[in-house]
Amino acid sequence: MAVVERHIQDESLAEYLEPHFGYPSRTRPCVNDVGSCEYLDNVYWMHDVSMLYSYIMWGVILGILAVWTTLRLINPSRRASVPKAELEAQATAYPRSAYYRAWRSVVATKQRYLLPEAFTSIFGRVTRIQILILAIMLGYLLVFSLVAIVYKTYITPVKGTNLFNTRTGMAGFSDRIGILAYALTPLSVLLSSRESMLSVLTGISYQHFNFLHRWVGRIIFVQSFLHTLAWTIVEGKLYQPQPSVYQTFIAEPYIIWGCFAMLFITFLYVFSLRRVIQWTGYEFFKKSHYVVASLYIGACWGHWDKLYFWMLASLIVVLLDLGLRILGVGLNHIGYTKSGSIGFTPAPATLRTFGTGPDTAIRIDFSHPSPSWKAGQHYYLCFPGLSIWQSHPFTPSSLPSAAGSTPHHTYIIRALSGETSRLATLAREVEGGTTPVILTGPYGAPLTTGTPNLLAVAGGTGISFALPLVIEAGGSEAHKAGLVQLVWIVRRARDLAWVKEELGVLRAKAAEGRVEVRVFVTREAGPVEGEAEEDEVEVVEESKEVEVEKEVAVIDMDNENPENTEASLDVSALAEESRGFSVTYLGGTHPDLSTVVEDYIERSPASGGRIQVMASGPAGIGSALRSAVAKCNDGKKVGRGEEKSDVGLYWDDRFL
């Protein structure tokens, strides 16, 4: 049954056709009964309004991006607001520009109230501002899904029978949410893109859009479900005679495409649930999500090709993202080989493991010609020795080399379950040799502190993110007026060996007074002695629980094994305190990050301006820092010129 027939129109009786963008043309004049003609007027009016609302929605989105980009351009600089001579002499603590103070006052107020987490049982560890954006989006869609709907019922006769059709505003509502779902699809794809145009415009790294991507996808799923349910009720119940009307309806090609689209979006929703990802594995989720999302776009195009432009835009973004990723791999690896010919050359990496069991960490080192990166950015690494179908994001703990020299990459990775566990096994197998690595990137927005006062907090292997920031700041003249401090939280003192050489650089800078390093050891009570810990349960990839005996933190100094003695001496040297370098043993507890932040703010020089906290590590550290940093912000004080009440936080998390 053709669409025009479902809308009780006969083109053969029409004097002319009235075009409606995104919908079948309206036949004029209407030759049906009065109720049917009035119903058709309402249906076409609701469709035109729905199209208008979809354009308005994108107008709002583009307007927000334009305003955001403009605000980035007019963001006032503290250096520009204070005479250079005063800054260099550290003679002032207060910027003189009222515009700067007002701007930073608004930012500090936003940080105080919107930085903490909320409703974590529903949304996970995300900030209030992300939830606020989602709430505004939900409210907008709810209002525009319900307004301008004709809530009126028409009982119209079915020609040649004594039956009647029931025609309501349900059809217009169903089309409304269907159009909005189509219009949201390009936004969902944009929010998921690794090669993100949104990052270019906003300066926000692509991974921070993951939260909105997930929820926009869920909104599309709900809209698709309601759209399908509404038309099923209309065609299967309200239109007569049954079941012939529904049987003809469900056999239409565009309806079959719609059923496939509903099947695909349901798959995307179910297999993106956190619990299901844990069952199936992240790699299955990532690969299947990419393929099924592309199939969904194609099925939507087949379902209603009059709105093809929304799907075309989505497909263009998908193909651009994929093409740029492939180009990135080529730029990193295609060049002259040792034989002198042009070919594909993976990076030869050396792997070294530290610790055993749940404490295992892996250090990866290789030198390879690749595009330069900025401190805090990350690469996706693929290990062909394990699988060419998997790649994971890791942050270099090394700084990019000087121009003209081959960049050296260093990565510190915790061996958990899955790929990193197999990587640890591979590292032991190739000890003393190399293994090929394929890298894509760099990714992530370049990070700038924007202030001489930098507090970098790292938990465990989060040191990969924090270390290059601190080393770079410690050697920068721009940070001489402030305090650069690294806080590193580790399980055991021997974990310092992960970055032994880099810590040597930091010790030298600390001795010069350029940086401070504070190490907190959570599972040891002292430099040598510690307490044996109980067995713990480790969840391995096969979702089985196995007992893993944790290593005892005590090193037996009486043991004649020279390896134990050497390890003890090495740890003692690494953990030795010196000027600007301290190690605190907590004996089974964790540091109070609120106290750490407050202590840093109190000690940081006022001449250094506002405070910037940059951190990476376990999610619990991020939650604690969001709460601690939010409390330290005070917009009123910042407005009066007290810059130390303006505290920013950047939390590095690629799995938001």
Give descriptors for this structure.
656 residues; alpha/beta; Elongation Factor Tu (Ef-tu), domain 3; Rossmann fold; 3 domains; 6-stranded parallel sheet; 47% helix; disordered N terminus
Concise structural overview:
The protein is 47% helix and 17% strand. Mean pLDDT is 85; it is low at 1-6 and 530-569. It has 22 helices and 20 strands.
Give me the secondary-structure topology:
Blueprint: H1 3-6, E1 16-20, E2 23-28, H2 34-73, H3 78-81, H4 84-88, H5 98-114, H6 120-123, H7 128-146, E3 154-157, E4 164-167, H8 170-192, H9 197-202, H10 210-238, H11 244-250, H12 253-270, H13 274-280, H14 282-303, H15 308-333, E5 334-336, E6 342-344, E7 347-354, E8 361-367, E9 378-382, E10 392-394, E11 408-414, H16 419-429, E12 435-443, E13 453-459, H17 463-474, E14 484-490, H18 500-511, E15 516-521, E16 536-539, E17 545-548, H19 562-574, E18 581-585, H20 593-603, E19 611-616, H21 619-632, H22 635-639, E20 647-652
Descriptive report:
This protein is an alpha/beta fold. The protein has three domains: 3-326, no CATH class; 345-443, Translation factors (Elongation Factor Tu (Ef-tu), domain 3, Beta Barrel); 453-527 and 571-652, Rossmann fold, CATH 3.40.50.80. The protein has 22 helices and 20 strands. The strands form six sheets. The protein has a six-stranded antiparallel sheet with strand order 10-9-12-7-8-11. The model is unreliable at 1-6 and 530-569 (pLDDT under 50).
